[in-house]
């Protein structure tokens, strides 16, 4: 008769040590854990990482789930092993007595159930998967009733995967419990659109009665495209009664904006709306962009992702915006400059009340120094492997020297998506539609998609056959689309037998 312990899937001692070391390195040290003795298939332990200065909450992480290899698709063997974690408020009760209180025990139960689910259902997990609880809340103390799996972004990308001694990866997924309304929205609109509505801090920690991202959207007031705003820094000046001009709240925003204007990283909508300031920067006049940011009713003292072109948006997402895993790297550089400028001794003396960056004199030298810092970051970003892939040069049907400027009065984004049947083969546009761009991409993505109309599914499934192109280029291929461009998102058009564009409808 087979011994129960022998039937369990277990890590080797070396594998177990690697997983434990990974947890301690990236999530936090732990001296306490919840052992699982009853599972018939894996030996599960849940590490309890107490609140710490950089993460003021408990983190619970499974140890042992990854001994089981999940039944993953053949082409994704790197997803076979996984461990799970979740974050709980710092006042959550995790005593021996609390284990018998369902109001405090249900997250532990959720971890246990999720850890065994791939075994019980012969299933597998990946980032973005959603597991429903048949609409039933996890406990009477909460309405949370499903769970989303995401990479643990708040802990940084190196935390996502642990490499075992044999070279196999163990992927770590953070459990994000959802309300029914959030689940419905994500299923209907896609996970990306849902996450655009969700402030990181609301999903970071399991609050059993946290605001509902869908029902409480107005109260939350979250803007996923917002990079930085002066209001936060104005509040610091006022609350601390700092002896600086309030224009200092706009300093680092103006530096970044000028740098992007000089490097050609702003989107067409921004350049059209603020062409006077943009032209002044481009010819070297260097106007005080702090005044533009402060006084312009459209800008309202903010930097937003939708101000930039495609490259500018991508860099901003990496450098100046994103999850708390790398919070505001640009702001860190600004603060580091202030430390170097004033010296650590003056800063430690309390003269600046923890806000030395607001006291740096507004000079051309300040801009040039920070521009050099941003240049270095930009070069580092461009050198990343994911940014090094060179697109193959396609034989365009129209020679570059024959392209005319047709979008002379266009104030919208200048990028579209198109099939090679048009750009390479020279076909006319036979079908086109306009989709709402992802939040933050409105500065470069027009939302327009153009096709010849004879592309089959196999052709379109090959990503090499379509790409992003300049909208003016497509107008050169087919000037008939010019009157269509200002049609609203959701427009779907096709040519009829007479060559005219007509509205299409779903069958």
3D architecture notes:
The chain has 507 residues and is an alpha+beta fold. The protein folds into 3 domains: 4-220, no CATH class; 227-387, no CATH class; 400-503, no CATH class. Helices cover 34% and strands 16% of the residues. The chain has helices at 4-7, 13-26, 102-120, 180-189, 191-196, 200-204, 217-220, 230-240, 251-262, 268-273, 275-282, 289-295, 310-319, 329-342, 344-348, 364-382, 420-423, 457-461, 471-477; strands spanning 32-35, 45-49, 58-63, 81-88, 130-132, 146-150, 161-163, 169-178, 226-229, 302-304, 415-419, 431-434, 445-451, 466-470, 492-495, 501-503. Strand 15 and strand 16 (501-503) form a beta hairpin. The longest helix has 19 residues, at 102-120. It is globular and about 75 Å long. The N and C termini lie far apart (61 Å).
Please write out the topology.
Elements: H1 4-7, H2 13-26, E1 32-35, E2 45-49, E3 58-63, E4 81-88, H3 102-120, E5 130-132, E6 146-150, E7 161-163, E8 169-178, H4 180-189, H5 191-196, H6 200-204, H7 217-220, E9 226-229, H8 230-240, H9 251-262, H10 268-273, H11 275-282, H12 289-295, E10 302-304, H13 310-319, H14 329-342, H15 344-348, H16 364-382, E11 415-419, H17 420-423, E12 431-434, E13 445-451, H18 457-461, E14 466-470, H19 471-477, E15 492-495, E16 501-503
Parallel strand pairs: 4-8, 11-13
Antiparallel strand pairs: 1-2, 2-3, 3-4, 5-6, 6-8, 7-8, 9-10, 11-14, 12-13, 12-15, 15-16
């Amino acid at each position: 008769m087979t011994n129960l312990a022998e039937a369990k899937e277990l890590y080797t001692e070396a594998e177990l040590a690697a997983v434990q070391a990974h947890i301690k390195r990236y999530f936090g040290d732990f001296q306490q854990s919840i052992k699982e003795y009853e599972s018939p298939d894996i030996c599960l332990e849940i590490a309890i990482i107490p609140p710490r200065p950089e993460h003021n909450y408990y983190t619970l992480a499974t140890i042992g789930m990854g001994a089981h290899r999940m039944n993953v698709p053949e082409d994704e063997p790197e997803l076979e092993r996984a461990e799970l974690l979740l974050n709980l408020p710092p006042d959550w009760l995790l005593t021996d007595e609390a284990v018998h209180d369902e109001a405090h025990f249900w997250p532990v139960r959720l971890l246990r159930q999720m850890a065994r689910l791939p075994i019980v259902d012969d299933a597998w997990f990946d980032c973005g998967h959603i597991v429903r609880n048949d609409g039933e809340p996890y406990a009477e103390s909460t309405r949370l009733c499903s769970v989303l799996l995401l990479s643990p972004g708040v802990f940084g990308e190196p935390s996502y995967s642990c490499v075992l001694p044999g070279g196999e990866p163990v992927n770590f997924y953070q459990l994000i419990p959802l309300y029914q309304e959030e689940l419905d929205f994500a299923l209907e609109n896609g996970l990306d659109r849902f996450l655009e509505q969700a402030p990181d801090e609301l999903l970071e920690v399991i609050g059993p009665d946290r605001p509902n991202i869908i029902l409480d959207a107005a109260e939350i007031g979250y803007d996923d495209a917002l990079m930085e705003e002066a209001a936060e820094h104005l509040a610091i000046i006022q609350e601390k009664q700092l002896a600086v001009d309030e224009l200092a709240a706009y300093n680092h925003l103006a530096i970044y904006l000028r740098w992007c204007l000089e490097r050609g990283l702003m989107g067409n909508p921004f350049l059209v709306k603020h062409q006077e300031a943009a032209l002044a920067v481009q010819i070297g006049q260097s106007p005080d962009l702090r005044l533009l940011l402060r006084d312009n009713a459209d800008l309202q003292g903010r930097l937003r992702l939708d101000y930039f072109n495609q490259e500018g948006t991508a860099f901003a997402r990496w450098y100046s915006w994103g999850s708390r895993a790398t919070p505001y790297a640009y702001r860190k550089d600004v603060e580091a400059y202030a430390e170097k400028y004033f010296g650590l001794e003056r800063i430690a003396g309390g003269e600046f009340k923890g806000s030395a960056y607001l006291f740096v004199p507004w000079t051309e030298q300040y801009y040039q120094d920070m521009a050099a810092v941003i240049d270095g970051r930009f070069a580092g970003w461009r050198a990343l492997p994911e940014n090094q892939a060179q697109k193959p040069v396609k034989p365009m049907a129209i020679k570059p020297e024959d392209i005319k400027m047709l979008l002379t009065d266009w104030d919208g984004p200048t990028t579209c998506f198109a099939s090679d049947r048009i750009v390479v083969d020279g076909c006319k546009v036979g079908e086109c539609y306009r989709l709402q761009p992802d939040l933050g991409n409105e500065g470069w993505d027009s939302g327009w998609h153009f096709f010849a109309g004879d592309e089959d599914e196999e052709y379109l499934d090959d990503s090499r056959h379509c790409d992003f192109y300049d909208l003016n280029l497509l107008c050169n291929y087919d000037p008939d689309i010019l009157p269509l461009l200002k049609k609203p998102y959701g427009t779907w058009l096709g040519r009829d037998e007479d060559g005219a564009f007509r509205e299409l409808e779903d069958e």
